[in-house]
Amino acid sequence: MDMMLLLYIFAGVIIGLIMGALPGLTVTMTAVLVVSLTFGWDMVSALAFIIGAFTGGVMGGSISAIALNIPGTAAAVATVFDGYPLKLKGEADNALGISMFVSFIGGIFGIIVLVLVGPLLGEIALKFGSQEYFLITLWGITLVAVLSRGNMSKGLISAGIGLFIGMIGMDPITGLMRFTLGSKLLSGGVNYIVAMIGLFGMKEVFVQLKSTSSFDVGNTRYKIKDLFPKPAIIKKVFPCMTWSAPIGWIIGLLPGTGGDIGSLVSYGFTKQLVKKPSRPFGEGAYEGVAAPEIANDSAIGGAITTMLTLGIPGDSVTAVILGSFYMHGLMPGPTFMMREIKYFYLIVVFLIIGSILSYIFGIFGSNLMLKMLKLPKWLMVPIISMLCIIGSYAIQNSINDVLFMLAFGVLGYVFERAGYPTGPIVLAIILGPMIETNFRQALINTGSMGSLMTSFVTRPINLIILVLVIGSFVFQSKTLKKFESDTVESKGEVEA
Amino acid sequence: MRIESILNWTARAFVIFIFTFMFINITALLISEKINLFAIDSPLIFAFLVALMIFTCFIITAYKEFMAFRASSKTADLHPTEDASKEMFREIKSVLLYVLGVYLYIITVRYLRFTVGSIVFMAIAMLMLNSNSEKIMIKAGKAFGAAAATVPVLYYVFHGIFNVMLP
Which of A12-26, A170-184, A234-248, A319-333 is predicted most confidently? Predict the structure, then answer.
């Protein structure tokens, strides 16, 4: 492998680890900023950089979860339950050591299953027609259920606005100009990367203005040698690793669910199954750190399997990554495994290297990242603003894109404050053109709206997908409700 | 009017604007291009369904919010306190100022050049955001120093290494 590619993965990992560790700077935001910088790059270098940042970001999330009791990423929410009590008991080294070791194992497990299942799923997906594609893309939209956090109608409004934004410009089938107001500026449509930078990056800058004080990490300092796994602890957490990794992978595979749900479900399972934990759950059980951390990393493999073989993102981070693949000319989806098989294996290799580097630099850079947590916000916020401005300008060298990005940032801020989730807007901007094209092709193929609706229940594959769509929608809504109440319960225990 | 209400009404007004704009635009296209909306090859059928979905969800949301408002108006303790409102007002004021600052930076950077414009923007932003109880000159010195150190690094990394065009 080219040394430059290794360097790109390395740079991505470092950026991902730092930004993943900083609370408020999400992995999604990291991915968006990283993606925008790779616009002029060749595809392989860009993939290396983006995947490096992705793997680093997921691992970085656990650092602030343990040190601050604030998860750096949504996938690290469950890590807080036992990670922070472990820190309070003077075992911060053990907590971070377990977390990073099982994250690494989970990541590798997810990649191995991706290699085994990916080609098989790709072959099945090749048999799909436009009706099946439409249902599959609709399956991706069920992610709205998770992103809406209990307010489905507001989530659907956000998704509708995303679909509208995706429709601005030329109709891909007939060439009709829609919603452009006769403006040349809008005739090419709204660039989805610009929308993503605004909605995930600039919006977060505005949210961070709420409080400009830096975080208090106390006198925590990790001893590097204690961050390597201790055999006695690994022996204790090994049983829960055996079920948490597959749980994470399967949940990551389902369109619309990602590492955050995977980690919460596996934490719940472990709480039920382990009768004699090292300590009671919520009071610093090693199993309580290992289960969610291995699950959220193995979920990456599952989410990437769905993204590459079906073209559907598992969560907002994979939605951004999917967008970046489109930007670089890669078209994940059922034909990906046939046409772009070399890129599939390249992505697998990058993921493996990214996981190894994230583990190594996660350990050796842990104290540096703790120092980063102390950086004042008055310093960080303008720098992030500059990254958003540079990122949005770099896409087409246009000041108009920067203004669009700023407008999306304001929209994201107002929507978030008014209780409208912003994740579905981005998801719909990315999936919108695919949903529309497949819907209209299916309509033409079947001849009428009635026949199209009937075909959903009369064609066996359609029926199976429809059941899965409804099933995952119900599963996500119920799981979310259950685990949100569990989260409140566990947080209460931690605080007590 | 409470500051939270202003944000909620802004979001609602935006949603109303979007679906109204969609319906008007679809109608205008149907007339000018003589398109049958419900034909199987209609380029506007999907857009119409999306507009309808936004409209329906908006009605549901408005109804839910109205019911919640009616329920909360009976229990006064559910209203945010004056302190919380003031806090939010302060936050929104700083967001508006920041947006204005970024906007001014965007439109002036082509005249000031990237390095000068960015140092000025970052120094002002850092000074504004620094809420430490230090003398203004010390804060200004820190802000200018940090901005002057950061911008050349950004320039070198993005333009020099990543070959990214800068504003």
Answer: A234-248
The alpha carbon of residue A3 is apart from the nearest alpha carbon of chain B, in Å, by: 16
- Asked whether residue A489 carries a pLDDT value surpassing 60, the answer given is no
User: CA neighbours within 13 Å on the CB side: how many for A327?
Assistant: 28
The per-residue pLDDT for range B110-135, each reduced to its tens digit, is 888 899 999 999 999 999 888 777 78
Q: Give the chain B residue whose CA is nearest to the CA of A445.
A: B40
Kindly report the nearest CA distance between residue B91 and chain A, in angstroms.
5
- CB interface of A with B, residues 130-169, below 8 Å: 151, 153-154, 156-157, 160-161, 163-164, 167
Q: Is A458 in contact with A228 (CB distance < 8 Å)?
A: no
Q: Percent of chain A, pLDDT > 70?
A: 85
Q: Which of A75, A8, A38 is nearest to A300 (CA)?
A: A75
| Sign of the C-alpha dihedral computed for residues A11, A393, A380 and A65 taken in this order | negative
Residues 85-104 of B with CB under 8 A from A: 91, 94-95, 98-99, 102-103
Does residue A289 have a pLDDT over 70? yes
B146: chain A residues, CB-CB within 8 Å: 379
Residues with Cβ within 8 Å of A273's Cβ and at least 6 positions away in sequence, in order, are: A240, A243
Residue A172: phi and psi, rounded to 5, are: -65, -20
Domain boundaries of chain A, sorted by first residue: 3-495
| pLDDT exceeds cutoff 80 at B74 | no
Q: What mean pLDDT is reported for chain A?
A: 82
**Minimal Cα distance from B165: which residue of A?**
A394
Torsion of CA A318, A25, A105, A334, to 10 degrees: 0
CA distances from A460 to A15, A298, A428, A447, A456 (A): 46, 31, 27, 19, 8
**A435, A142 Cβ separation under 8 angstroms:** no
**Helix ranges, A126-179 (H):** 130-141, 143-147, 152-167
Higher pLDDT, A71 or A223: A223
